[in-house]
Amino acid sequence: MTVTEQPSPGTAAVRVAELHLLREQARLGPSEKATEAQRAKGKLTARERIDLLLDPDSFQEVEQLRRHRAVGFGLEAKRPYTDGVVTGWGTVEGRTVFVYAHDFRIFGGALGEAHATKIHKIMDMAIAAGAPLVSLNDGAGARIQEGVSALAGYGGIFQRNTRASGVIPQISVMLGPCAGGAAYSPALTDFVFMVRETSQMFITGPDVVQAVTGEQITQNGLGGADVHAGVSGVAHFVHDDEETCLAEVRYLISMLPSNNREMPPALPPGNDPADRRNDVLLDLVPADGNRPYDMRKVLEEIVDHGDLLEVHEQWARNIICALARIDGQVVGILANQPQFLAGVLDIEASEKAARFVQLCDAFNIPLLTMVDVPGFLPGVSQEHGGIIRHGAKLLYAYCNATVPRISLILRKAYGGAYIVMDSQSIGADLTYAWPTNEIAVMGAEGAANVIFRREIAGSADPEAVRAEKIAAYKSELMHPYYAAERGLVDDVIDPAETRKVLAAALSMLRTKHADLPSRKHGNPPQ
Q: Are 176 and 139 in contact (CB under 8 A)?
């Protein structure tokens, strides 16, 4: 056929040309005006987001030409292709990743029956393939015009989120206002990313809040990125723009296995040798247990190239939870942060740490616990708020974990908090300590006041006697080798050799295998 000839009606060439037109229509979206409105809000389109997330030219779309079949309220006259969600798979650094992205330009990204069915299918495919699932959320909740069918669609998503939990990594990226059911699916996933100013999450919006309670508040004030990152703890990561956010999602995926049957991806350590000395640690950490320091700087000195991916960085800041590599191997790190509340455990820190332990255990990530904890935070609000059951969550998570577990005691390790922070008695495989460690039921001052209360009160010089008893208690029960002498610490190490010791321990434990008792599931504290 020459260039001047036209294909005859009904020929394959006509049908192929029609297909390409339909695909182009689906790819472009409803209209240029809708795209401009999306960009005016500082937001990218669904396909632009997918292009940033996945490797170039790797995206394979599923059900691009799907349209809804609903009638009523004018829906029958508006049946755009994709039905407001783009679904498919591609690769991130060559590894398969499944994705779905709400298209806010179509029905405001609201979920209808066909829309939900597409998401169900891609979730089922991700579970069957054993590959991570990323949701790019920018939807206004259930499609009201479709009634209960839309709500049932959310139920199917929640059921699959739960079935996939601990099987494949699930990552939710919040890129617009997500209300009601659109907020619950992310809450069931492993990680939630948010973008400042453009993304919000709430069960009921500001208008409903004002109507019911009389409280006036903006969308960002109610459920913005900083609120969920620093107050509620719903968001694990928060960023200023979509490009940075999606780049960080790619980095997170590079630290996670594709599923619970695989190990996390290992990398060659490059020019950061496993036996690199850490002499700077002697200056970073004061021997005086009452002086604060930045635990993050300690961790950066120990891990490969100083690279840490901190989870929940702005929430419960008295404990650090981070993913990093030591000698090229991924490790999950939990560490008390003396810069905030002296590193004590409280309700929020216990919840944050417990979920991180469970995540690492589910995905075969070894646990390293860096201990400098003066105890649990005392107070009426903590007790009434349920510090007992919340602290028990962390205890349960550690006791239930079967991945390699190493703990290192830097300075203080007092009371129940010492036990909870992966002590040897609850199953840590190896426990190390620095020569500055103090392991005891409580601090020497408190212990002396309890044990020698009458003797101190009845003396002519109570302060002198108190000081004498404190020194005696420290000498008898809190010297750096007390726990090692009793086998509760495997070794007291030179801080400068910390990286070398940890790398060797992680290498030895890489083939660890442990089974839990046969049971349907445990009944963890709530």
A: yes
Same domain for 231 and 301, yes or no, is no
**Residue 268 within any structural domain of the chain:** no
Residues carrying an active site annotation: 180-181, 416-417
Domain assignment present for residue 515? The answer is: no
| Average confidence score pLDDT of the chain | 90
Report whether pLDDT(3) > 60: no
Residue of higher predicted confidence among 515 and 92 = 92
Shortest CA distance to 135 belongs to which of 150, 120, 148?
A: 120
Where does 121-206 show beta strands of DSSP type E?
A: 133-137, 170-174, 177-179, 191-195, 200-202
Strand (E) or helix (H) holding 384: helix 380-385
> Is the pLDDT assigned to residue 515 strictly greater than 80?
yes
Residue 485 sits in the same domain as residue 463: no
Tokens linked to 16: 């192929």
326 and 401 housed in the same domain: yes
Q: Which letter, b or e, does each residue of 291-309 get, where b requires 16 or more Cβ atoms within 10 Å of its Cβ?
A: eebebbebbbbbbbeeebb
Higher pLDDT residue, 506 or 79?
506
Domain that holds residue 459: 443-479
Integer Cα distance of 106 and 108 in angstroms: 5
